[in-house]
Amino acid sequence: MKTEMLDAVESKSLKDNVPHFEIGDIVDVHCRIKEGDKVRTQIFTGTVIARRGRGINETFTVRRIVGNEGVERIFPIHSPNVLDIVAVRSGKTRRAKLYFLRKRTGKAVRLAQRHSDHTVSK
C-alpha cells in the first residue's frame, strides 16, 4: 500500500525520455545553472563511472580531468536541472563501477571503444 502511494507520487516527477547510456560511456550532461537572476546551460563532459538507484532516486557519477585534477559530479537522472544527457562515445567495460579510474592518469584513463555493430563475420 505504502509503495503504491509513493510510486504514484513519484511517477509525476519522472522523465519520459531518459536517454540510454551505460557505465564507461563518455557523456555530455547539459545542466541548468542559476547565477543570481540569470539562468544558463553548462555542459559537463566526462566518463560515467557509476550508476545507482532506481526510479526517482536514480543517479549517475561522471568523472573528468580538469587541470590535472580529477573532478566528479553526481547527477540525479530525473532532476529538472539536468536538461539533457548525450552519449558521445561508448566505452567497453567489464565492471559495474569504474572506481579504479580514480588512481589512473593520462592515457591509462581511456577505455576501449565499444562498437555499435555486434555482428561476427566468418
Mean model confidence by pLDDT? 90
Summed up, the helix count is 1
Structural class: mainly beta
The fold-level CATH name of one domain is SH3 type barrels
- What shape does the CA trace take? globular
| Percent strand | 35-45%
Helix content: under 10%
Helix/strand order, N-terminal first: HEEEEE
Structure overview:
The protein has 122 residues and is mostly beta strands. It has a domain at 22-99: SH3 type barrels, CATH 2.30.30. It is 7% helix and 40% strand. It has 1 helix and 5 strands, in the order αβββββ. Strands 4-3-2-1-5 form a 5-stranded antiparallel beta sheet, with no helix packed on it. It is globular and about 50 Å long.
Write the layout of secondary structure elements.
Elements lengths: L1 H9 L15 E10 L2 E15 L6 E8 L2 E8 L5 E8 L33
Antiparallel strand pairs: 1-2, 1-5, 2-3, 3-4
